[in-house]
Design goal:
- By secondary structure, the protein is α+β, with helices and mostly antiparallel strands.
- The protein has six helices and five strands, in the order αβαββααββαα.
- It has one domain: Muramoyl-pentapeptide Carboxypeptidase, domain 2, CATH 3.30.1380.10.
- The protein starts with 13 loop residues before the first helix and ends with a helix.
Length: about 170
């Protein structure tokens, strides 16, 4: 199985998708070349990402197994830089270190600050496993609560219905 990249905001919890649209407008206004790389993930896709750097080649990119990521419930998204905006199309770049070497501008920090100002949680600020591309909205629930609703209600739509009721 290979990882399927979903950039389709219509597959996300609708209020979260609206929040991302606003976030993207703020990124554009700040002239920050970040674009949605991955949004909703299946549990299978999440497990494949979890295996990377463990049982599959590559470096470790997540500590979350299938069901343990807000991506799995349509409540998280990853934004990545266009590494060469002068070229046609998006040249996906996860290069955080080169950006940190330019003291006059840290695009990743600015992106994270804008995310927070839009009411999102920015993985850039996580202490245990910083994840600069990641933004999410827990919508007031813990992951354990969301997982329980998912199991009891049989799916993502049950989670979204509970989020609507709690709003």
């Amino acid at each position: 199985m290979s990882i399927i990249v979903s950039r389709d905001k219509s597959l996300l919890y609708p209020p979260f998708a609206d929040q991302l649209r606003y976030f993207e407008s703020r990124l554009a206004a700040a002239k920050l070349p970040f674009y949605l790389y991955m949004a909703l993930r299946t549990f299978e896709c999440q497990n494949e990402l979890y295996a990377q750097g463990r049982t599959l080649p590559g470096k470790i990119v997540t500590n979350a197994r299938g069901g343990d990521s807000f991506h799995n419930y349509g409540l998280a998204a990853d934004y990545v830089l266009d590494g060469s905006p002068e070229k046609p199309g998006i040249q996906w770049s996860w290069d955080i270190k080169s950006d940190l070497n330019h003291a006059e501008r840290n695009d990743w920090l600015q992106m994270a600050e804008i995310a927070v100002s839009c009411g999102l949680e920015a993985g850039y600020f996580w202490k245990r496993f910083p994840d600069a591309p990641h933004v999410q909205n827990r919508c007031g629930l813990t992951l354990a609560e969301i997982k329980e609703i998912y199991r009891a209600g049989h799916g993502i739509k049950a989670v979204w219905e509970e989020l609507k009721r709690a709003a």
